[in-house]
Specification:
Blueprint: E1 14-18, E2 25-29, E3 37-42, H1 51-60, H2 62-67, E4 70-76, H3 80-87, E5 103-105, H4 110-114, E6 118-119, E7 124-125, E8 127-132, E9 138-144, H5 152-163
Parallel strand pairs: 3-4, 4-5
Antiparallel strand pairs: 1-2, 1-5, 3-8, 6-7, 8-9
Domain Thioredoxin: 4-164
Organism: Paenibacillus dokdonensis
InterPro entries: AhpC/TSA, Peroxiredoxin, Peroxiredoxin_AhpC-typ, Thioredoxin-like_sf, Thioredoxin_domain
Length: 181
């Protein structure tokens, strides 16, 4: 039986990363994001079809996330070298081009397993998106089939709802009143 993650401490991680311009390798840990909101998302593979649409859309919206005190970290089971090659390949050549957040390598698949998104028979992650609050509590998760991309607008809406401090009704939008504050 699957274990519930929402409402619990987010599973810890440390992974190698490549910067959004592909110029440097580093490491990222969950503790690096303490004090900020983290939009942490998994995608299946570099150099594919749906993945770059999501990554570049999140990158294009990075300033909106930063304005909400949120950082973004993308992760797949590819190596940091594959990530670097994808980032340094122009968008019009099936690359990402420069993006506004790092990509992490879960080459051991341990983080994908901890977050419940690993597809054992394929060796890749499902499209899982997690929002972790500044204290490290996992507040939101959505996991879907790899054929379907996610929505930046919905991610921003949910982040703002979580930050609103109250109960948010169906179809709540920023600026709407909460049911109870």
């Amino acid at each position: 039986m699957a274990e519930r993650l929402v409402g619990k401490a987010a599973p810890d991680f440390t992974m190698e990363t490549v910067t959004g311009d592909g110029s440097d390798f580093s490491k990222a840990s969950l503790t690096d994001y303490r004090g900020k909101w983290l939009v942490f998302f998994f995608y299946p593979l570099d150099f594919t079809f749906v993945c770059p649409t999501e990554i570049t859309a999140l990158s294009d919206a990075a300033d909106q996330f930063k304005a909400l005190d949120a950082e973004i970290l993308g992760v797949s089971t590819d190596s940091i070298h594959s990530h670097k090659a994808w980032i340094t390949t122009p968008r019009d050549s099936n690359g990402l081009g420069q993006i506004n957040f790092p990509l992490a390598s879960d080459i051991t698949r341990s983080v994908a397993k901890d977050y419940g998104v690993y597809i054992e028979e394929e060796g890749v992650a499902l499209r899982g998106l997690f929002i972790i609050n500044p204290e490290g509590e996992l507040k939101y998760q959505v996991v879907n089939h790899n054929d379907i991309g996610r929505s930046v607008e919905e991610t921003l809406r949910v982040l703002q709802a979580l930050q609103s401090g109250g109960l948010c009704a169906m179809n709540w939008k920023p600026g709407d009143k909460n049911l109870f504050a």
